[in-house]
Amino acid sequence: xxxxxxxxxxxxxxxxxxxxxxxxxxxxxxxxxxxxxxxxxxxxxxxxxxxxxxxxxxxxxxxxxxxxxxxxxxxxxxxxxxxxxxxxxxxxxxxxxxxxxxxxxxxxxxxxxxxxxxxxxxxxxxxxxxxxxxxxxxxxxxxxxxxxxxxxxxxxxxxxxxxxxxxxxxxxxxxxxxxxxxxxxxxxxxxxxxxxxxxxxxxxxxxxxxxxxxxxxxxxxxxxxxxxxxxxxxxxxxxxxxx
Length: 243
Description:
By secondary structure, the chain is mostly helical. The protein has one domain (2-237). 76% of the residues lie in helices and 0% in strands. The chain has helices at 2-15, 24-53, 61-85, 100-119, 122-125, 129-156, 159-166, 168-181, 193-214, 218-237. The longest helix is centred in the N-terminal third of the chain and has 30 residues, at 24-53. The protein starts with a helix and ends in a 6-residue tail after the last helix.
């Protein structure tokens, strides 16, 4: 479907609407949104059950990280399963090499900058090196699994399908807007929700641009994982010494 959309969109630009095809935007929207909803539903209904099965709660760093990993895994499995059934390949979801060196370079720089900003926070500095090393596996599990899932769900699934139809920047902005709206219910924005959403919208535009520029999601995943340090470390610090 992904390659077919690009071919038809190109023909429509040259010769007008291809009458024998259904409206492209409708077809693309149905596939993308159905896939996204199925993946999110799997995560919503089964992640908590998996956590209970493991005897964990979200009152510890381990529990929070494992919950995120279970949710992310179920959503990713749902997306990949539907894509496979519809004859889509991984490249259509930006799971491909692309301009890997550029993507990883920008991703590392972005993640490193976010990590430095995180470690400069007084509450994080007060935790001490030993505590941060102890939590490192759970921090990485949370950040990497969540970043991969969200980049696949909000950008990998939509960017390549909408860009031939509505253009590069409108696609980037619309997916960034959807991603930002999806975070309106968060409770971990100590400096104010609207300030958090504004920063998140800026990050979302950067991640969408990077994915389009490098033709791959890996750089965006790395950058996104670094940004999640700004969220998860303060959350972990709130558990106190008992954690």
